[in-house]
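Hypothesis: this fold can be encoded by more than one sequence.
Test: take the structure tokens below, design a sequence, compare later.
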């Protein structure tokens, strides 16, 4: 598939790299081709194409948004017309002061993003852990049990497309429901950060599903 990344920092770069190595065509939507993150991404993987944001989004089947939450409005403004009907993967998290929810838990960041691009098919994914687990999601010794990747969205076909990518990347995709459920996923992120980085558990843990 043709995949475009808006944001290739801690989150975007490893996802883009792994997806390119799985055989997808990856394009970076670069507002500045010389920026530190774009150059670092190219150093990591020279196969990435780099285009102006509007051209990168036009040529994409799936667009990943991996920008700081406060930058989302500006990042989407110049490409919103090209996002109509496309899958937009919301990899962002609204993180407020003292690990509170950045939108006061009144609505999810994903729904805010959907309101900015109403005709895109927004799917929340790749948000419930820190960057360390996006770099490396291998947890050997658990048999067929894979780390869980919880996703949410309003469009079933779009979620299936992203679930398939999650699976190829080594996650167990779990569809948690409509986009409004993203609020709970964003709280799971805050919990993960609290446990990993504040309480000192460290970053080498993930959520998994045991079911009967
Ligand atoms: N870090 C984590 O552990 C983690 C884990 C899961 C989810 N998240 C979420 O993922 C998102 C990205 O986090 P990150 O740690 O990857 O951030 P980061 O390393 O700072 O990277 C941010 C990327 O966004 C780009 N960017 C910034 N402002 C932009 C704008 N107005 N238009 C277009 N691109 C813009 C930057 O490009 P330039 O270099 O050109 O400025 C850079 O490529 C955040 O919402 C975060 O909450 C983070």
């Amino acid at each position: 598939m043709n995949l475009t990344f808006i944001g290739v920092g801690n989150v975007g770069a490893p996802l883009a790299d792994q997806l390119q190595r799985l055989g997808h065509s990856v394009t970076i939507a670069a507002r500045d081709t010389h920026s530190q993150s774009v150059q670092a991404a190219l150093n990591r993987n020279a196969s990435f194409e780099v285009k102006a944001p509007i051209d990168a989004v036009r040529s994409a089947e799936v667009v990943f948004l991996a920008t700081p939450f406060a930058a989302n409005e500006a990042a989407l403004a110049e490409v919103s017309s090209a996002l109509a009907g496309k899958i937009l993967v919301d990899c962002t998290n609204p993180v407020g002061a003292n690990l509170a929810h950045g939108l006061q838990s009144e609505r999810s960041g994903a729904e805010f993003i959907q309101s900015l691009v109403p005709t895109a098919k927004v799917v929340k994914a790749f948000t419930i852990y820190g960057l360390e687990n996006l770099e490396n999601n291998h947890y050997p010794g658990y048999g067929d049990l894979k780390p869980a990747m919880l996703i949410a969205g309003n469009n079933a076909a779009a979620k299936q497309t992203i679930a398939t990518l999650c699976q190829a990347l080594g996650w167990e995709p779990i569809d948690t429901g409509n986009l409004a459920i993203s609020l709970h996923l964003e709280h799971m992120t805050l919990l993960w950060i609290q446990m990993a980085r504040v309480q000192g558990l460290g970053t080498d843990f993930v959520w998994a599903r045991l079911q009967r």
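The two ends are 35 Å apart (CA to CA). The mean pLDDT is 98.
Hypothesis status: open.
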